[in-house]
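Known limitations

Files may contain more than one protein. Parsers should not assume a single record per file. Below, a two-record file is shown to illustrate correct handling: read the sequence, read the token line, then continue until end of file.
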Amino acid sequence: MRSHINFMSKFAFLSPKRQFTLFLPFFLMRVKLEELDETWNKIRIRLPLNWVSANAAGNMYGGYQASLADPIPAMICIKKFPGYRVATKKLEIDFIRVGNSDLILHFDFDPAHEEAIRQELEERGSATPCFTMQFTRDDGKICSEIKNTVAIRPKGHIGKHEHL
């Protein structure tokens, strides 16, 4: 993911919104960035229900939802905390209702949470924050809730399982 983000940043003539949708996994999933504020604190992404994303019952695959939700907090943290390596450490999904329409991923980064992470990075040199996101259906009901924990580490840091 990091190399693709670096590659896309070379296209400064493209808006951040366009760079985001050209991120290869998102492009292939045909997602549409509905909203992105200039601080990257509020993001809304449409995940289309189509012949690729629908299971045998015609509802959104859970894995498709996971594929979109997985990199979002890491991408945001890479933007907000440059100089660190960021990766998803843990992803949990609670499927509340079937995804029988396009889904909208809601990600909100509270400035107080950002400040707490920044402070932890200054004090400890690393942080492992958890972010909560939701997918909503076209009828506005929550389809699934995602908890995504990311590891923010200094560049060059090798974790206990990374030597394998």
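...continuing to the second record:
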Amino acid sequence: MFNKVTIDQLAAELHKSEQSRVQIEHFSKRFPEMTIEDGYAVSRAWVQLKLAEGRTVRGHKIGLTSRAMQLASQISEPDYGTLLDDMFFEPGHIPDERFIAPRVEVELAFVLKKKLQGGRISIEDVLDATDYVTPAIEIIDSRIEQFDRHTKVMRKVFDTISDNAANAGIILAGRKVKPAEVDLPWCGAILRQNGVVEETGLAAGVQGHPAVGVAWLAQKLAPWGEFLDAGQVVLAGSFTRPVAARKGDVFEADYGLLGRFTFDFV
């Protein structure tokens, strides 16, 4: 695994990239021996830099939940990152200057009322610990360039993991429902960009049931001595492909019975 000097160096590079809005080259290119564990170590070190600046943890996100994305990334499980307080936005105007290359994903968010901790967590445990489920838009971004500037090779999953699983923003809106009120796998959404339907999907696209990823995450955090705490928000994973967003774009997320809301990048 990376030593502490390397971990801290790469975390500092990510931090500088976010502030300057200038992307950096693939870590996996510089360190071909990089592992998934190295990626998570760098991500955690970056979060610590943010916490030292006064940020607070509001929850977690799960990414790469679809089978297609896992095959493309050559992994057999999702990845995850941390949600900080300054990543949360209301529907309406989203400041474009906060991002480098933003993309929009359609998801459901679980807001917990009880702690989820341990190595054996079931879907039923997740539903029992959930206060409510609500529509969520994740704004993903890339501090590490998606394609290498020289070879045009796509970044590896180690890069994405170290980059806080590409998270940058989250919009919570629409209805808040108890898990028993709706058939969660059949919750769907239509995403329009500038009036054009770009994506549609069902939450079943997230490993069959959106709570599966939440249970998986609680178990993955356990070896680190971490857990999903009461009051935290957990993004369960996207059930659409990411849609690139540019300044001036207007989006509408229509979740049917769970509500409809709009936002734009200004």
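Parsers that stop after the first record will miss the second one. For reference, the second record is described as follows. The mean pLDDT is 94.
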